[in-house]
Amino acid sequence: MLNLARQRILITGGHGFLGRHLIRRIEQLRPQELRWPNRKECDLLDPANCRRAVENIDLVIHAAAKVGGIEANRAAPGEFFYENALMGIQLLEAARQAGVKKFVQIGTVCEYPQEIEQLPYREEDLWFGYPEATNGPYGMSKKTLLVHGQAYRQQYALNVIHLLLTNLYGPGDHFGQKDAHVIASLIDRFAKAKQQGVPEVVCWGTGSPTREFLYVEDAAEGIIKAAEHYDGAEPINLGSGQEISIRYLADLIAEQFGYTGRITWDTSKPDGQPRRSFDSSKAKKQFAFTAKTRFPDGLTNTIAWYKELVAPKKKALPQY
User: Fold this and answer.
1) Is there a binding annotation on residue 16?
2) Are residues 309 and 270 in contact, defined by beta-carbon separation less than 8 angstroms?
3) d(Cα 13, Cα 16) in Å, to the nearest integer?
4) Is 13 annotated as a binding residue?
């Protein structure tokens, strides 16, 4: 077991959606030192910054990433591959040189192949094919980092673990931006439609694809448990076991905002992968992780946070 209270810890992406929740939880453990530089202070595309970031660090949790939905991935596939691969490669090499004890690489469901005959996804299925085309370069950049970590484990005995996270949602997400994920994007869209009296909300695709969503607080808990208790070479899924369709998701969000207009599906836009769901049994077995938050409760919490954030007289972001 790695006792985090005794460690000097670096969290990359600490000012992002997942990173803020990780920091809040790890601060409660009172580590010896905790660093979370932002991109302006420490752009990981510069190898010199990577070397400075890991000086006198015991544990790295690499959560920094260029992320976004289907639209963002289709618009800039080169950037998604280049930035994610380069940040991870340079940071891991710097960590090796600095003698870091453990490196936690945050991976993604987008690493899984487009064509998998049987769901839910198991870690053994990861190499059966190329990822879904709309986010293939992003998925491959993360797969590259999985191979990189396993290679460094083999050659240098560096303790690198790789966690595969399913789609995240929750308070603090990026709403109404081009890089927003599906839940945040839909929340923002229905909220504005309700407020402005728009008679129709147009959503991408057919609405038939399914996704598994993991509440961000549960994700942070799983990452911390893995950092403390998991030292294996093989990647590990972190999911919720709750799979729902995008159409049902849109209906739920519309209902919570009291939106009664039409929901139209633009089938000229891509659906992405038809289904995504995780087998997270290894996480339960290896480090006792099970997601606690029911999806309806997590969605209600997320919408409540969003409503507080955009309240007309709100001058500062709410704490979470």
Assistant:
1) yes
2) no
3) 5
4) yes
SS3 call for 45: coil
Please identify every residue annotated as catalytic: 138
- Residue 62 marked in a binding site: no
Residue 18 among known ligand-binding residues: yes
Q: According to the annotation, is 252 in a ligand binding site? A: no
CA distances to 125, 143, 302, 307, 310 from 317, rounded to whole Å, are 41, 35, 14, 11, 9
In 3D space, the residue among 222, 185, 146, 189 whose CA is nearest the CA of residue 68 turns out to be 185
Edge-to-edge strand order for the sheet containing 243-245? 167-169, 210-215, 243-245
| Distances from the Cα of 23 to the Cα of 44, 68, 219, 223, 225, angstroms | 19, 22, 12, 11, 14
Q: Kindly report, residue by residue over 227-278, the tens digit of the pLDDT.
A: 999 999 999 999 999 899 999 999 999 999 999 999 999 999 888 878 889 9
Instruction: Please say whether the beta carbons of 176 and 190 come within 8 A.
Output: no
Cα–Cα distance between 163 and 254 in angstroms, integer? 33
CA gap 210, 245 in Å, rounded: 4
Q: Could you read off the pLDDT of 16-43 as tens digits, one per residue? A: 999 999 999 999 999 999 999 999 999 9
Per DSSP, helices labelled H in 157-294 are: 182-196, 216-229, 246-256, 281-287
pTM for this predicted structure:
0.93
Contacts of 77 (CB under 8 A, 6+ apart): 136, 137, 138
137: nearest Cα among 72, 81, 65: 81
Q: Is the dihedral of CA 297, 298, 303, 309 positive or negative?
A: positive
Domains (ranges, CATH) in the chain? 4-169+211-243+274-293 (3.40.50.720)
Closest by Cα among 39, 290, 244, 58 to 50: 39
